[in-house]
Write a structure and sequence with these properties.
Blueprint: H1 2-13, H2 15-34, E1 48-53, H3 58-70, E2 72-73, H4 81-86, E3 92-96, H5 100-105, E4 113-116, H6 121-140, H7 147-158, H8 174-202, H9 205-212, H10 218-248, H11 255-281, H12 285-303, H13 314-320, H14 324-335, H15 343-377
Parallel strand pairs: 1-2, 1-3
Antiparallel strand pairs: 3-4
Length: 378
């Protein structure tokens, strides 16, 4: 009870900072919630597409003619494509590789790479009709068919237009996804701040001496501290879940919403280990605050919390992979595009959660190693 009462006193001391982070998150929740206007009306607006084409063949000419009919082709220099996507001048960028048609006709399964604005209905619509052309091409691409015949079959089928009617809303929680990606900053900042402040306060000489003369052993005190820190972490998680439910209501009670909640819980457990590590070994509050800002802001910028991962450069993403935030945010992005919940689609999400938990285990082990080294030194 001595450890618990001390813990509560320290929490009360810093309630102002805790409230500040709650206010910040609430403000952003209101902003994101206001953009989450859903309806069942579908308007086929022509998307803006930039194309990087490396070949010139009859099949490719037919494909490009079809694209031009259904979209606005935007001419942009190759080096400016990323900026155009970020500024939403284009909804989709297509990269067509050299020798695509020949490889396709010979069943080598060539791939058209693309980059898209993640929450854009226009880019989703563009991919839908692009896939229609490619699916027809795959259907008619039987052995020894000539390129001219293949094009003829495809173009004949494409003339049959069909009306698009939505029977049911899809579980596309794109706005909730942005909110949960942003929670990388809010959850980390709040949790690490609370845990590190509490842990560093317990390391003060006055409290340390008081705990030393208590009947509770040092190991038991540490276990109790970890349990209390776990309770605080779960409380932060619940606060964010309640806010998500308040602003997005039923959107959080479908399968995507539940997976987002589970993914956040896994991330919170790893953040618990980070806060426990910092609080155990950093005493200076200014240094602690600086480390907290570097970790939370740094990972949020390079891992995709503030800017979508699809827009970040490959070199930035390679660096981002060494942080748990990258895998947490990547999982959020995977979850909101799920339509089929079979094991093959869920497998990468489960693997990413496992990676995040391994980061948490790593930080916990590092904490134990440093504590043992300090005890041996004494």
């Amino acid at each position: 009870m001595i450890v618990f009462s001390t813990f509560l006193k320290i929490i009360k001391k810093y309630y102002g900072l805790i409230l500040l982070y709650l206010v910040i998150f609430t403000i952003f929740s209101v902003i994101f919630a206001s953009t989450n206007k859903q309806n069942n009306v579908f308007t086929a607006k022509k998307p803006n597409i930039a194309i990087v084409n490396m070949e010139d063949s009859p099949l490719m000419k037919s494909f490009l003619t079809y694209i031009k009919k259904n979209s606005n082709i935007v001419e942009i220099a190759k080096e400016d494509l990323k900026d155009a996507l970020f500024n939403r001048k284009v909804d989709l960028i297509l990269n067509i590789p050299d020798n695509f048609s020949n490889d396709f006709l010979n069943n080598k399964n060539p791939e058209i790479k693309f980059e898209r604005v993640p929450d854009s209905y226009s880019s989703t619509y563009a991919l839908m009709y692009l896939n229609r052309y490619l699916n027809l091409a795959n259907l008619y691409n039987i052995n020894n068919i000539s390129e001219e015949k293949l094009i003829g079959y495809i173009e004949k089928d494409l003339k049959e237009e069909s009306e698009v009617v939505f029977i049911q809303k899809a579980e596309n929680n794109y706005t909730a996804n942005y909110l949960y990606n942003f929670s990388n900053y809010s959850v980390m900042a709040m949790t690490i701040m609370i845990l590190s402040l509490v842990m560093s306060s317990f390391k003060k000489e006055v409290i340390k001496k008081r705990n030393m003369i208590s009947p509770i052993s040092y190991k038991k005190q540490n276990r109790q501290l970890f349990v209390f820190n776990l309770i605080i972490t779960l409380a932060v998680w619940l606060i964010f879940i309640i806010m998500g439910i308040f602003f997005f209501k039923t959107a959080m009670f479908n399968r995507q919403g539940l997976l987002l909640i589970l993914n956040l819980l896994v991330f919170c457990l790893t953040v618990l280990s980070i806060g426990f590590l910092i609080g155990n070994h950093i005493q200076n509050k200014e240094v602690m605050g600086a480390i907290n800002n570097v970790i939370t802001l740094g990972t949020s910028f390079i891992c995709g919390a503030f800017v979508p991962q699809e827009i970040l450069g490959e070199s930035v993403l390679r660096i981002a992979k060494i942080f748990p935030s990258y895998w947490f945010i990547k999982n959020n992005d995977l979850i909101v595009i799920l339509t089929n919940y079979n094991i093959d689609n869920l497998k990468p999400i489960i693997i990413n959660m496992g990676i995040v938990l391994l980061f948490g285990l790593l930080f916990y082990i590092i904490n134990l190693i440093i504590l043992r080294l300090k005890l041996k030194a004494k």
